[in-house]
Amino acid sequence: MLSEQELNDYRTKGYMRREGICPPSEVQQIRDTLLGLFARKAGYEEGAQYDFSGRDEPGKMQSFPSMHDPSHYVPELRKTTFHRRALALAKELLGEDAALYGEHALLKPALYGPETPWHQDEAFRSPDFEYKELSIWMALQPVTEANGCMQFLEGSHLGDVLEHQSPGGDRSLHPLECCGDFPKAEAVPVPLEAGDCTIHDVRTLHYTAPNTSTAPRLAYILIFNVPPVYKPGLRKAEWLVGRRTDSQERKRLWYRKGGIAVEVLRRLPQVRVTNGRWLAWAAIRLSSKMRQRASRPRP
Ligand SMILES: O=C(O)CCC(=O)C(=O)O
């Protein structure tokens, strides 16, 4: 799907733009499906749906509705042309081992939808692994700077993971913002038509502005990776220590009430047992999560 020139460009810049990854009829169908999931707050109790930029409080209107893995609630999403083409692109960019790591839907409300702070996705990941990962961000209506199209810092994926922090120092909030030194003024906004996408590397610095338009901005993002390589102590990520969002808390309670079995059944068909490196990654992640939990002070 990609020319040598496009591959080289991606490697140099850390992002690219693709037109028409999704046919127009499917754009409408995916849009309606995701809006329906937001409207009925699907997955809220499981921690899959949450406010991306504020606290989740009962009865409070979300400032930036966000949802992880919508295909857990509507499995047909995985059968779309978008999923199929996105996987093919990921394999070209990351290698044949590439597989879907997660999905994200982000609904930036009209007029007041807040910004997504500058960040590198790797800042959210455990610092004990080396990653090869990318995100395919599809617009479900036209996007420009005015309603929050993606903006990138060219070449930023070639440097280190910079210092990040929780906005206002509040570690119960979902976003992380980059507080390292980088030339924000060189940001490149990438406007798109509905059904177009951007692709960015896990280390590329990116940002979206507040939605000042009169219509909501909806994006559907697919994240792909190859098995991360365990390198204990590779980086430090102080900003992750003690971070606990409201949605993580709901997920923990849901797991305890038996949700863990549901989660295992949902993920089982996707388990990548064909390659020992996926199994090693899963086992190391599980044991480090259990160690973290054991060392956490009891309330
Ligand atoms: O859509 C947004 O506002 C931000 C998306 C983002 O940060 C990402 O896809 O990594």
Features:
single chain, 299 residues, alpha+beta, Jelly Rolls, seven-stranded antiparallel beta sheet, four-stranded antiparallel beta sheet, 15 strands, globular, binds 2-oxoglutaric acid, oxidoreductase, iron ion binding, Phytyl_CoA_dOase-like, Ectoine hydroxylase-related dioxygenase (Phytanoyl-CoA dioxygenase family)
Number of domains: 1
Residue share in helix: 25-40%
Instruction: Tally the beta strands.
Output: 15
What is the radius of gyration? 18 Å
| Order of H and E elements | HEHEEHEEEEEEEEEEEEHH
Termini Cα gap: 52 Å
Global mean pLDDT = 93
Distinct small molecules: 2-oxoglutaric acid
Q: How many helix segments?
A: 5
* Overall CATH architecture: Sandwich
CATH superfamily: q2cbj1_9rhob like domain
Poorly predicted runs are none
User: What structural class do you assign from the helix and strand content?
Assistant: alpha+beta
Shape descriptor reads globular
Q: What is the CATH class designation?
A: Mainly Beta
Instruction: Describe the oligomeric state of these chains in a short phrase.
Output: single chain
Strand content: 15-25%
Summarize the biggest pleated sheet. 7 strands, antiparallel
Keywords: Dioxygenase, Oxidoreductase
Organism: Pigmentiphaga litoralis
Protein name: Ectoine hydroxylase-related dioxygenase (Phytanoyl-CoA dioxygenase family)
Pfam families: PhyH
